[in-house]
Design brief:
Blueprint: E1 12-14, H1 31-34, H2 55-65, H3 69-89, H4 93-113, H5 131-137, E2 146-152, H6 159-166, E3 176-183, H7 189-199, E4 203-208, H8 215-223, E5 231-235, H9 245-249, E6 258-267, H10 274-295, E7 307-310, H11 311-317, H12 327-337, E8 341-352, H13 358-384, H14 390-420, H15 427-434
Parallel strand pairs: 1-4, 2-3, 2-5, 3-4, 6-8
Antiparallel strand pairs: 5-7, 6-7
Helix pairs in contact: 2-13, 3-14, 12-13
């Protein structure tokens, strides 16, 4: 791993050895100076050119957005339920639903009929007899330095397999490193990671204390400022990674407006039972819509495991948000609000273990739903300013209606329909969503 006098080069340390926190968000004026890899004036083709970003002011908006979430949630719920009652009782309610269904139908057709762009050619393999010749032909800037981050808590059953796979990636060994974060584990994770750090030169281990704050976001924020990576990759401890993943994903960052890439996720234990088979189908559908939404100039989204992030983009966003329960969904919006695109890589997939019980799945989806709502409540001011551009804003609003607003109004809509002896008011929109 190359030495940098500005950054420590630990093999394994505990939190008391280095209590670094992420740097404050830099402002746009010195972004290029802080990182020479910053794209100069690049903006996504499907976005508007907003006013220059004052990140100190933007940071205050972020902080303001996370305040009063319960109050904002209550106001939103009251408005949605009250609006549902008004639509049922008014003479023009049906026309509102017809117009909404027509607009959603047009957007749905655009998404379904879109043709996603093909993936770029992967970087050449550095394995086999031609490895030396391959490296000699391509200068180092073709192989951006990649720092792989894995936060683990009580993962001694799986973390060893992941590290063994990551140190054997088909990518130049001196162009990537691993940062394993033991988040106050109480099993054998800490000892196992220390042994792996002694075994593999690329592996660095950070031990977090039991009173560390911020959860996974806090763990990632503690580590990424210490790294040398031009690109960051985040994996869950149970991830199963293909050896050619880096050299296939990295070329997507040749597009200067791409701030992050999400790799398709797959369920490793899909054959276990009904619940895991359902998650396999769900992830396949999510991958399809990710590709289609990006193809029409909409929103690409991060999904946690298998996310790649450009260092410059992460610095502009101020790191991962420690005040949210879904760091990936939150970072998704921050990236788009700062005029970055998120690309999607379909092959190869990153595999992970699916939840095997109904109760576990219920708790997981409750957390995802809460985090999904949370980001709209936090960033509605910036979304309303159309900072992302018209195409992305329309796509985000349509996604919000489909995934969050329709389920929220379903209960009062159904109750009023039963009481009044009519069909549910939102039936046409809901039917369009299901089909």
């Amino acid at each position: 791993m190359p030495n940098d006098p500005q950054r420590p080069n630990p093999k394994y340390m505990d939190e008391s050895t280095n209590a670094s926190r992420p740097p404050a968000p830099i402002n746009s004026a010195n972004a290029a100076e802080a990182d020479p890899r910053a794209p100069q004036g690049a903006l996504p083709a499907n976005s508007i050119d907003p006013e220059p970003i004052d990140l100190e002011a933007l940071g205050s908006v972020y902080a303001l957005g996370s305040k009063g979430r319960r109050r904002k949630a209550a106001v939103t719920l009251t408005a949605l339920w009250g609006g549902t009652v008004a639509l049922h009782l008014s003479t023009w309610g049906a026309w509102v639903i017809i117009a909404l269904t027509a607009l959603m139908g047009v957007h749905a057709l655009r998404v379904l009929l879109a043709r996603p762009a093909s993936s770029p050619e992967p970087l050449p393999s550095v394995r086999g007899e031609d490895a030396i010749a391959t490296l000699a032909k391509l200068p180092s800037h073709h192989w951006p330095y990649v720092s792989i981050l894995v936060a683990a808590k009580n993962e001694d059953a799986v973390i060893g397999n992941l590290v063994d796979a990551l140190v054997q990636l088909d990518y130049p060994q001196d162009r990537y490193d691993l940062w394993m974060i033991d988040d106050a584990s109480t099993d054998g994770t800490a000892d196992l990671l220390d042994r792996l750090a002694r075994q593999y030169p690329q592996v660095n281990v950070i031990h977090r204390s039991s009173d560390a704050i911020g959860g996974k976001s806090g763990a990632l924020n503690q580590v990424w400022p210490l790294t040398q990576g031009e690109l960051f990759v985040v994996f869950d401890a149970d991830a199963k990674v293909s050896a050619d993943l880096l050299r296939r994903v990295v070329p997507l960052f040749d597009q200067p407006q791409v701030g992050a890439v999400q790799v398709r996720k797959a369920i490793a234990n899909a054959a276990t039972n009904f619940w895991t088979r359902g998650q396999r189908a769900e992830m396949a559908l999510d991958s399809f819509f990710q590709r289609q939404r990006i193809a029409v100039g909409g929103i690409g989204e991060l999904r946690g495991n298998g996310q790649f992030v450009r260092r410059t983009a992460l610095e502009v966003c101020g790191g991962w948000n420690e005040a949210t329960i879904t760091d990936d969904l939150d970072l998704t919006l921050r990236l788009h609000l700062n005029c970055w695109d998120i690309a999607f890589m379909e092959f190869p997939a990153v595999q992970e273990e699916g939840v095997t019980t109904a109760l576990g799945l219920w708790h997981q989806r409750n957390r995802w739903a809460e985090g999904g709502y949370q980001r709209y409540l936090d960033y509605w001011r910036l979304i309303a300013q159309n900072r992302m551009g018209f195409g992305k804003t329309v796509d985000l609003v349509a996604f919000c209606i489909t995934q969050y607003l329709l389920p929220t109004v379903a209960v009062p809509d159904l109750l009023l329909a039963v009481v009044r002896g009519r069909t549910p008011m939102f039936g046409p929109v809901a039917g369009l969503t299901v089909t």
